[in-house]
Amino acid sequence: MTDFDDTLDLRLERVIAASPETLWRCWTDPELLKQWFCPRPWKVSHVELDLRPGGIFLTAMEGPEGERPEPEAGCVLAVEPARLFAFTDSLGPDYRPRASGFMTAVISFTPEGTGTRYVARVLHATAKDRQAHLDMGFEQGWGTALDQLVELATGLE
Amino acid sequence: MTDFDDTLDLRLERVIAASPETLWRCWTDPELLKQWFCPRPWKVSHVELDLRPGGIFLTAMEGPEGERPEPEAGCVLAVEPARLFAFTDSLGPDYRPRASGFMTAVISFTPEGTGTRYVARVLHATAKDRQAHLDMGFEQGWGTALDQLVELATGLE
């Protein structure tokens, strides 16, 4: 659905030994999402997810020393069960613009063999935003979370 | 679908003597959209509209002296034929964030008597953005365009 642009976007891709349906549940069931979405020792303390285009997507994080950064309420954009999930922080619930929008995430799940080709694309407005996301530790942060997702999803099968 | 917030948002509402289907066509058929969307003597010189969530929404304007401000490519968010249409300039095509996002427009069409209750809600991130939109001439601009829409839609019936 989305043209990937190497100069603007970031991508994580992996073939996972779990079904698209299981990976979908891990992304969209708040109790499962909490178990993998944040690289440990940080954790997700609270999730609000209204699984419809225009619905809220909010994950509150908590650090090992009790840090609690102010969570931001993003917006669900696309909901195609076991196929595609997209959300953005450029809009809030019900599509209201947000002043501090930064990225759109597009997650696709494609059956491959007995597992799933998992592709997470993270779209930015500018090359500067892409670089800022890299500097914030995108590869390690999203990579570690993906390891946690794989562990959870394969354990559920 | 959207909670209206008087401190952040702007609204135009009118009962129009045309069907929801006709008003829908006027919004979503590029050839019809060009005929009313821009207050005369300005005109719409070019439309790109991919009528699906994530599709492009672009209207290029041309002034009476040949002015051609750079058009911005926004993103379609909701497509419910003859009921609801929404788009934003906070995202570009395929949901990519845009650096200069400003508003989301949510247009609803509800049958009323032999016509339609037409509500255009324009959502902003901040009260400052709402005021800027007022200062840019929202009431006159959107109001004049709505008069042109009414003229076109009632003529089509």
TrEMBL record, chains A, B:
Belongs to the AHA1 family. Residues 18-152 form the Activator of Hsp90 ATPase homologue 1/2-like C-terminal domain. Pfam families: AHSA1. CDD domains: SRPBCC_CalC_Aha1-like_3. Coiled coil: none annotated. InterPro entries: ASHA1/2-like_C, START-like_dom_sf. This is SRPBCC family protein.
